[in-house]
Amino acid sequence: MNALDQLTESFSRLPGIGKKSAGRITNFILKADRTYVQQFAQQLATLQDKIKACSICGSWTEQDPCPICSNPSRDRSLLCVVEQPQDVQTIESAHEYSGLFHVLGGVIAPLDGIGPDQLRIASLLSRVQEGEITEVILATNPTVEGDTTALYIQRVLSQYPSVKVTRLASGLPVGGDLEYADKLTLARSFRGRASF
Question: What is the maximal distance between C-alpha atoms in the chain?
Fold first, then answer.
């Protein structure tokens, strides 16, 4: 395997990148300005040294605590629980939420050997016990594992009656057609319906 094939293989291991896309990226890099390629390589080489998990929320950051946790204007009574650090960026990009975050680092998946003890649930409970949080928003993905994790957290948090536990609404996407919606999505849409 030559250098071109090796690089293409490396790119194809990235999520969402197939063999064809990996080949296109490799060919782009071969044609690109040498300075750009060297800068790109340097950024990749130092990424894991510069970025770490926030000691409070678990999101990716260069400074600890992260800018969200250290921002005094955030609503400290709201805590949004997500599966992965990239979920924080997704929610932040909507500019609709002004509270804090807590990254679990995955979901409960018994078939993969992942139980509650492998997730950041103990640190979530510690944050709730501090008493400042009045609402925990469960924003796990609407999958079997995500729902199982949300249900588990909801049960664990039931020992704190002063903390309201909510779940992100799920249902039909904006611009979606009913004929393409699956049964589970339709069922959730009816259960989570809201008045005008």
Answer: 62
Q: Are 149 and 119 in contact, with CB atoms under 8 Å apart?
A: yes
pTM: 0.84
As a whole number of angstroms, the distance between CA 167 and CA 96 comes to 15
Q: Are strands 60-61 and 52-53 parallel, antiparallel or unpaired?
A: antiparallel
Other C-beta atoms lying within 10 Å of the C-beta of residue 59: 23
Residue 59, CA atoms < 13 Å, CB-side half-sphere: 22
- Cα–Cα distances (Å) from 175 to 20, 98, 124, in that order, read 30, 26, 36
Give the model confidence (pLDDT) of 131-151 as tens digits.
Answer: 899 999 999 998 899 999 999
Dihedral class, residue 124 (left if φ above 0, else alpha if ψ from -120 to 50, else beta): alpha
